[in-house]
Amino acid sequence: MTYYFRAGRSKNIVIDGEESFLGLGYAILRAYHIDCDHCFMFTFENGEETNSGTPFGAMDDYRDVNIEMRIAGRHMRVGETMKMEYDYAGDWSRKVTLVEINP
Question: Residue 51's closest CA among 18, 32, 24?
Answer without folding.
Answer: 24
